[in-house]
Amino acid sequence: MSKRLEGKVAVVTGAASGLGAATAARFAAEGARVVLADLQIDKAEALAASLPGAVAIKTNVTVEDDVAAAVALAVSRFGRLDIMVNNAGILGVTGPIATLDGRDFLRTMDILFTSVFYGIKHAAPHLIAQRSGCILNTASTAGVYPALAPHAYTAAKHAVVGLTKSAAAELAFHSVRVNAVAPGLVPTAFTSQHNGGLTGATEASAARSPLGRALDPNDVAEAYTWFASDAGQNITGQVLVLDGGQAFRHGIDFGSLAGFKDAAGKN
User: Fold this and answer.
1) Distance, CA of 263 to CA of 238 (rounded, Å)
2) Would you say residue 176 has pLDDT above 90?
3) Close Cβ partners of 257 (under 8 Å, ≥ 6 residues apart)
4) Residue 37 near residue 61 (C-beta atoms within 8 A)
């Protein structure tokens, strides 16, 4: 059976854990050579060592030169770039909007949104030159539906959705595709911090879904693999909501997200 990404080269940011690690592993299993770009370089190198055709690079996604270096490594090491996955993220600053610290807000936006701009910017010239390839961005249900997450995270993810569509509109004329996946609550080390551990996050994910099943990082990895494969060759400018129907319930407890309260101090 042929591998869906045979011969392709990918860069995945935030690849040391969670959705990024699952995506990097799936890409490698499908035949891609992968650059794992992450600030957690020890974890990234350990994962890269376990994957065929993978290499890690220490990357602070808020530093443009670091993102450019990850793309350059893919091209210098493997001769090309076919897939750019802008995935790195955090929850970021939380709290009532009247008391949010401006510097923390901007830092959150830099990690969640400006990093995506850097990834698109530096991947685009290589993809344009070869007139093929795709850019994939990690959005969130918080970027599609209102009131699912704290202000900065919500604003950043809406911005990711907007940039995905505007970049897709431009790059389509160069045969380059740009899409996003908007996951709901996926149990990972990141989400477990706010949901009572990994078991709690898994239980919460299942409980919020009308389908009654918890999401899994491999669900997102599979979606990205499909977008990057020949099966997705005519899909661009799309945002795939992958949440098991969680958003139908809008059942997020803001109190679980580091004390999200209104300006009057009430839950």
Assistant:
1) 35
2) yes
3) 91, 94, 149, 150, 194
4) yes
Report the C-alpha gap between 58 and 69 in whole angstroms.
Answer: 9
The one catalytic residue among 118, 145, 153, 224: 153
If you search the block for the tokens 């409980």, which residue do you land on? 207
What CA–CA distance (Å, rounded) separates 251 from 208?
6
* pTM: predicted TM-score of the whole model, two decimal places: 0.88
pLDDT value, residue 254 = 41
CB environment 165-197: b (16+ within 10 A), e (fewer):
bebbeebeebebbbbbbbbbbbbbebbbebbee
Strand runs labelled E in the chain: 9-13, 33-38, 54-58, 83-86, 134-138, 177-183, 239-242
Question: Tell me, what's the pLDDT at 163?
Answer: 98
- In sequence order, which residues have a C-beta less than 8 Å from that of residue 187 and are 6 or more positions away? 195, 198, 201, 202, 205, 214, 215, 216, 217
Q: What is the dihedral of CA 92, 11, 31, 216, to 10 degrees?
A: 10
Quickly count: other Cβ atoms within 10 Å of residue 90's Cβ: 15
The pLDDT tens digits for 93-150 are 989 999 999 999 999 999 999 999 999 999 999 999 999 999 999 999 899 987 778 8
Percent of the chain past pLDDT 90, that is, above it, reads 72
Q: Is 70 helix (H, G, I), strand (E, B) or coil?
A: helix
Q: Is residue 153 among the annotated active site residues?
A: yes
The answer to whether the CB of 70 falls within 8 A of the CB of 59 is yes
Given a contact cutoff of 8 angstroms between Cβ atoms, the answer to whether 77 and 54 are in contact is no
